[in-house]
Amino acid sequence: MVSLRARIVNRLLPLTGTKTFFSNPSEVQAKIEKLREKGPDLPSKRFRRKFDVLEERVDGYRVFAIAPRAGARQSQHHVLYLHGGGYVMDMSWAHWNFIGRLIEATGASVTAPIYPLAPEHQCDALIPKMQKLFERLAEKHGAANITVMGDSAGGGLSLALAHTLRDSESSSPGRMILLSPWLDVTATHPDQPEIEKHDPMISISGLRKFGELYAGGLDIKDPRVSPLFGTHNRLPPMQIFTGSADVLWPDSKRFRTALESVGANFEYHEYSDMFHVWMVIPIPEGKEVMHQISEFMLRSK
Fold first, then answer.
1. Domain 4-299 carries which CATH code?
2. Average of pLDDT values for 274-294?
3. What is the pTM of this model?
4. Bridge-partner residues for 267, per DSSP?
5. Buried b / exposed e across 199-229, counting CB within 10 Å, b at 16+?
6. Domain boundaries, the chain
7. pLDDT digit string (tens) for 186-236?
8. Which one, 32, 69, 117, 223, has the greatest CB density within 10 A?
9. Do the Cβ atoms of 192 and 165 come closer than 8 Å?
10. Helices (DSSP H) in 62-203: which residue ranges?
11. pLDDT grade, residue 300 (50/70/90)?
């Protein structure tokens, strides 16, 4: 049964304007210009008091390294967190809140890149940058200690990165965690129009527009753009979280079937009537996911 807090959040989500943004492709460029003027949400003063935060520029973009303070719970785990936002929107306060709770739950340190966004930067340039960042982190922390984690577009980018690392014979991460991942930018699954009627955040037209901006000169079914169409053998142990009130839910189900066909090591968690990326919100269901993530990371170290 969906918690009361989740039902309240679900009712409030349309007020954020996210679905309106997704539903008006003709206004995307003007909205993106406003987003660029605003810039990403950054770690708050309270966040910086609670954790050790280091900012640097890597390959032309900002990267934040966050770690527990001395005396707090610490572990050997390191997380490369790739945020969502349709490849066109920056990190939000909700991402930082989730990262803070993740550190407290696992003792892990986290790298959170403010990675280059579309349409100014596109898939064929972004994935090599993320590969370079991962390889740098692997040298410091050890690839086996790294969890690549992402929500929504960041989940799709995480899977595309894992494919690239495997195919280039680079070291692979120890594990991967995908939260409401955006795996197919074509948004053509026949079940999606019906789900869209009840999804408080996402519209199909917006997905297709953002996907085109991100793809650039690549075909939208290129596995770098839509990693669902890639091959999924030899991937690290994986957790996938999705909800049945999310337009992206059918693609997670397709991904589960593809993983089963190659005998992959994965967990698939489907929550009834839950909306897009509810996992990053500290509602009861989000807290349950955090517990599952913590168990998974500790179990597969």
1. 3.40.50.1820
2. 96
3. 0.96
4. 239
5. bbbbbbbbbbbbbbbbbeeeebebbbbbbbb
6. 4-299
7. 999 999 999 999 999 999 999 999 999 999 999 999 999 999 999 999 999
8. 117
9. no
10. 93-106, 123-141, 153-167, 192-196
11. low
